[in-house]
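Practice problem 4.
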């Protein structure tokens, strides 16, 4: 799915903002008609308030919003966390901050939906939760850079600063509400009892990456340790009943509506 994006020349000439074009694009994609954006709720600022849910868009690591999301969930709000995953990145280099384009190329690095496990390593105290929906759109992006050191203490030749990021193309979007949803990312031919070597072989990834995936799935309750084969831990997939019980234990006493937030925002705007 290709997106209509702002002309690069306009971006280069445009006024600098705290948020990237990518962040604005995502807010437009995940807001509903009649919703509100950039709403203050207590000490937090919410990206989007839809009719029954709060939406938090996080381009950087999930660890940065872990406490915020945990507090919103504890207060009884329904929350969508949108965590985009970059599959390809086109790098655009400027001569200086507002200079001309001197180079444009694709980064050799590739991403996939499995990158969500790198984020969940620091988010297992939050996910899963009955009121949490984790949304991961896959995308190709463009990153506009210019030479500079920013606030880096150690300066090296080749340092750069990012002027902007924007979406070039959207791929599949995955949603995770329960630990069972993580099972869809596992190989179909996985044995009923498996170890990280089986996981690495089935996903065609290095063993250390499979170990990280197993760690996240064990911490979230998506898989259960069943024993050992020599020094290797054996696992099995958690069942749907086990997943429901785990979610029920986290269910808040009450679920708060967001209608009052929308009303207050609309009255202030008027």
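Answer key:
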């Amino acid at each position: 799915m290709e997106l209509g994006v702002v002309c690069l020349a306009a971006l280069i000439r445009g006024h600098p903002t705290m948020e990237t074009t990518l962040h604005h694009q995502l807010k437009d994609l995940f807001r509903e008609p009649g919703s509100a954006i950039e709403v203050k709720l207590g000490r937090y600022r919410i990206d989007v308030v839809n009719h029954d849910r709060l939406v938090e868009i996080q381009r950087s690591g999930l660890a940065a919003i872990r406490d915020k999301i945990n507090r919103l969930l504890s207060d009884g709000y329904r929350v969508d966390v949108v965590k985009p995953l970059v599959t390809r990145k086109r790098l655009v280099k400027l001569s200086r901050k507002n200079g001309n384009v001197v180079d444009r190329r694709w980064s050799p690095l590739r991403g996939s939906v499995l990158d969500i496990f790198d984020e969940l390593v620091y988010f297992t105290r939050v996910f899963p939760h009955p009121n949490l929906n984790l949304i991961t759109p896959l995308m190709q992006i463009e990153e506009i850079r210019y030479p500079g050191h920013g606030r880096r203490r150690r300066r090296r030749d080749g340092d750069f600063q990012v002027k902007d990021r924007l979406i070039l193309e959207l791929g599949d979007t995955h949603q995770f509400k329960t630990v069972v949803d993580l099972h869809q990312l596992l190989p179909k031919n996985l044995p009923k009892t498996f170890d990280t070597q089986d996981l690495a072989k089935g996903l065609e990834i290095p063993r250390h990456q499979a170990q990280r995936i197993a760690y996240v799935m064990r911490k979230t309750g998506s898989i259960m340790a069943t024993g050992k084969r020599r020094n290797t831990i054996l696992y099995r997939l958690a069942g749907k009943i086990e997943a429901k019980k785990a979610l029920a234990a986290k269910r808040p006493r009450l679920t708060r509506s967001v209608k009052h937030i929308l009303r207050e925002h609309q009255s202030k705007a008027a």
